[in-house]
Amino acid sequence: MPEFDLDAHRGRPVTIDDEGERTLFEQLRIQEVHQQYQTSYLDLVQKISQGDTTKINIQKDRELFKTYNRARTDYQESLNKVEEYEKDFRVKCFARMRSLILAVLFFDRKSNTRMTKFNAEKLIEIGALQEIPECPRGGNYSIIYKDGRRLFHCSIHGTLRN
Questions:
Q1: Measured between alpha carbons, how far is 33 from 14 in angstroms, rounded to an integer?
Q2: Which residue has the higher pLDDT, 133 or 64?
Q3: Which residues constitute the domain of residue 56?
Q4: Distances in Å between the alpha carbon of 98 and those of 82, 101, 104, 114, 160?
Q5: Average pLDDT for residues 144-159, to the nearest whole number?
Q6: If 93 and its partner were Cys, which of 56, 138, 150, 157 is the partner (CB 3.0–4.6 Å)?
Q7: In the predicted structure, residue 80 carries a pLDDT above the cut 80
Q8: Can you list the alpha helix ranges (DSSP code H) found in 112-150?
Q9: Could you report the per-residue pLDDT of 94-123, keeping only the tens digit for each?
Q10: Same domain flag for 69 and 103
Q11: d(Cα 103, Cα 4) in Å, to the nearest integer?
């Protein structure tokens, strides 16, 4: 494995590769950014408590917050990347639940009964599905009832609403 220069990438925002999977380096980078953010916040609190608050110098105070503001910006960018990454998984999960709705409706018409509890094997038996769709994050699908309506629910991403 080639030698990786961590210092060359320090301060670079976290990026997600095209395949949609975070690399180990990116996961470690997110942890590092979070630790820098926490450290800069604690340093800021300590400097404020140790400083003389009776005399306020705007130029000096600006330098006091500079490290914290930089760390906070990096941390927010990392959180936004993670949120975008997770949103992609949620969209894929909801798309699979939509296809399950069609399969369940097909089952209802073909068997003249309502599927009250999700059973993927029955859907495969009647030919509504070729294979059992799975949540990209490993969640379990189920049918829940709300206001007399059947809704699909993923144990990780929540309920699919119309």
A1: 9
A2: 133
A3: 20-90
A4: 25, 5, 10, 17, 8
A5: 88
A6: 157
A7: yes
A8: 120-125
A9: 999 998 989 999 999 999 999 889 888 999
A10: no
A11: 48
